[in-house]
Amino acid sequence: MNIYPIGGEMSGKFIVFEGVEGAGKTTQIQQTATWLQGRCSQDRSIITTREPGGTKLGLKIRQILLEESDSWVSNRTELLLYGADRAQHVAAVIQPQLDRGNIVLCDRFTDSTIAYQGYGRGFDRSEIDKVNHLATGGLQSDLTFWLDLDVTIGLQRVGGRGKPDRIEQASVDFHHRVRQGYQELATNYPDRIVRIDADRSEAAIQTEIQSLLIQAKWLWTETTPIED
Length: 228
Ligand code: T5A
Fold this sequence. Notes:
binds P1-(5'-adenosyl)P5-(5'-thymidyl)pentaphosphate
């Protein structure tokens, strides 16, 4: 987690980045944080964080879920571990930062569980919603950027990083179902989820994200510059 010390009195804002493996979320979050930092330096801090693994406890859960790729984890255990990671993350990082009026940029949140454990693994939506609600207390993003990318391109992008983790090892069909899940979520929640074509240059994607954030009036104060 990186904290840029800016300070401020406004209500916090929660912006999430979602997408299939290798969609470019980490890349875009870093660039968005730097851009936002330069624009709201008088108002508040920009926090970047991720799931799983946004807390000390979450890092241990992340290791179980992803790095121990040879050990068997049941689908039910997997769902609950993502829920446990999120519960700790919301309680220890996200909610306290929002309460301080800061802007939290998060790499994956509840929609990942719907897409991966719901559409990917086949859990009923009602079961996923229960776990998500228990973990978050109902917290939702103010805005979610869905970086939409063909799963084969995304898997190729991350393919050079050594041994694939447990989720990356899942079948291509699994990842297609995950993408379909995001598609349906974006259709069902158009006010919260914005699709970004991620099959473009990093710069083109970042320009679109910045443009969408400039248009998001809820993000800015009168004293915060909203244009370059
Ligand atoms: N998961 C997570 C669940 O199943 N349920 C849940 O509830 C949650 C929260 C997390 C795994 O856990 C699963 C989903 C995941 O499988 P992770 O390691 O955090 O594992 O994996 P990801 O979140 O998918 O992160 P990745 O690093 O794999 O992908 P990113 O962050 O989307 O992509 P990024 O920015 O690291 O870029 C990947 C590569 O592509 C290049 C980058 O330089 C990098 O090499 N790249 C581009 N190349 C070309 N054009 C562009 N526009 C590019 N942008 C980046």
